[in-house]
Design a protein that fits this description.
Number of strands: 15
Distance between the termini: 48 Å
Shape: globular
Order of helices and strands: EHEEHHEHEEHEHEEEHHHHEHEEHEEH
Largest sheet: 5 strands, mixed
Structural class: alpha+beta
Strand order of the largest sheet: 5-6-1-7-10
Helix content: 25-40%
Length: 420
């Protein structure tokens, strides 16, 4: 396995992306502490899904209760999410970065990684400076980036995070970890800040006597594999020791959407309507990628605790079959009529290519399925033609606050169709 003797990867993270985009688009918010909430009127019981640099300087964090954030930062300005604005900002930023160097992979709506060309490896700080200058000149001052540079993607990502806070100041960071300086910069980093080590894995490592980065680096690769129970642990060992690794291809597992319901729309009836809309949008995405689904999952977060159900599907992608399966999941749910539903989530799983459907000899639904698919395709064509949902199977009543199925997306980039 190759161990680079120079920096080869760049990892870029936009600082407080959703809040900083709001500041860039709305001059009245600039320089003020901003917290992004799921919908208008979230109140002090709501959750911040993003916050600006100014708010973070005051101790506010993402996924913090509004009441707690206000106690830390009384001047916090709450702004409801604008997911389509973030999508458009992402596309503009990507275009500017690509004018400087190619992008190897977009990791999320606010993170990406690049391969550093040999000509830039001696002076990577200049490369980072060109990216920052390009964004500043063509996008503006309010959306800044932190950049990490190292021998491989894992170390570059960790360097990026380490560079976000410098001298008590958040954002616009740059951290370069050259191979000859390693592992020195790694040693102060707590295990909880290592991508791939969550709370459960940290507890497992502690039981094995591994409580610091020095302990982790001294662990043998095979022991790391045993601790993780798979090759991921061994790959992490090689990544932390500076080896070049080829990222394994990601396989699509499911298509899903979730939605926190506004306080006035938390009845079972409202949750059912929201689940139909979310599932329709998930099915649209699945059809665009030409998959069938063999399973449907429904999950509710209620004041009484979580509630879930699942069912199998006969490898379908049409709205009629999928929505009928959802209706069956809801039928006889057994929940009290007074149940308060805070969040509803749906997912289509057990995916297979749409052109490789296996017929079930006990079902024999091929003719009916083809008819249903033709109806769904006609609906999709009409909606595409008009750029919005003009035809749907059943009523189309988005919940208050909008953006059902087109919410802030951390791990995927929504398309324009997600907002129809």
């Amino acid at each position: 396995m190759r161990k680079p003797d120079t920096v080869e990867k760049l990892y870029l993270d936009f600082d407080g992306f959703f809040a900083s985009v709001e500041q860039a688009a709305r001059p009245a918010l600039r320089g003020r502490p901003v917290g992004v909430v799921p919908f208008e009127g979230a109140g002090d019981r709501g959750i911040l899904i993003a916050c600006s640099r100014e708010a973070k300087q005051a101790g506010v964090k993402n996924v913090m209760r509004v009441s707690e954030a206000r106690s830390l930062c009384p001047d916090l300005v709450l702004v409801p999410q604008s997911p389509d604005l973030y999508r458009r900002a992402h596309n503009a930023l990507i275009a500017e970065i690509m004018a400087v160097l190619p992008i190897a992979a977009v990791k999320s709506i606010d993170e990406l990684t690049c391969d550093i060309a040999p000509a830039d490896r001696e002076r990577p700080e200049e490369l980072a400076g060109r990216i920052k200058a390009r964004l500043r000149d063509n996008i503006g001052l309010w959306i800044t980036t932190s950049i990490g540079i190292a021998a491989n993607r894992q170390l570059a990502k960790m360097a990026c995070k380490a560079g976000k806070w410098r001298n008590g100041r958040y954002g616009d960071g740059l951290m370069v970890w050259r191979p000859e300086s390693m592992p020195g910069p790694l040693l102060p980093i707590p295990l909880a800040d290592v991508p791939g080590i969550g709370a459960r894995m940290a507890a497992r490592l502690a039981r094995a006597g591994i409580r610091s980065m020095a302990d982790l680096l001294a662990t043998a690769p095979k022991q790391m594999r045993a601790l993780w129970g798979n090759v991921t642990g061994e790959r992490l060992w090689y990544a932390l020791h500076g080896y070049a690794l080829q990222t394994p291809p990601q396989q699509r597992g499911m298509y899903g959407h979730g939605r926190v319901l506004p306080p006035e729309s938390r009845s079972l009836a409202d949750a059912y309507r929201a689940s139909r809309l979310l599932l329709t949008k998930a099915a649209r995405r699945m059809r665009r990628d030409r998959y069938n689904a063999g399973a449907l999952f429904l999950h509710l977060a209620t004041w009484s605790g979580p509630w879930s159900r699942a069912t199998t599907l006969p490898e379908v992608h049409d709205d009629l079959a999928i929505l009928e399966a959802l209706r069956r999941l809801w039928r006889g749910h057994g929940l009290p009529r007074s149940t308060v539903v805070q969040q509803v989530s749906v997912a289509l799983g057990d995916l297979s290519p749409a052109d490789e459907r296996q017929l079930d000899i006990l079902l024999m639904d091929d003719h009916a399925r083809q008819d249903a698919e033709k109806i769904t395709e006609a609906i999709d064509r009409l909606n595409t033609r008009y750029g919005r949902t003009v035809v749907s199977v059943g009523p189309w009543r988005p919940p208050a606050g909008g953006y059902a199925g087109g919410k802030i997306a951390y791990t995927r980039i929504p398309s324009a169709e997600d907002f129809w």
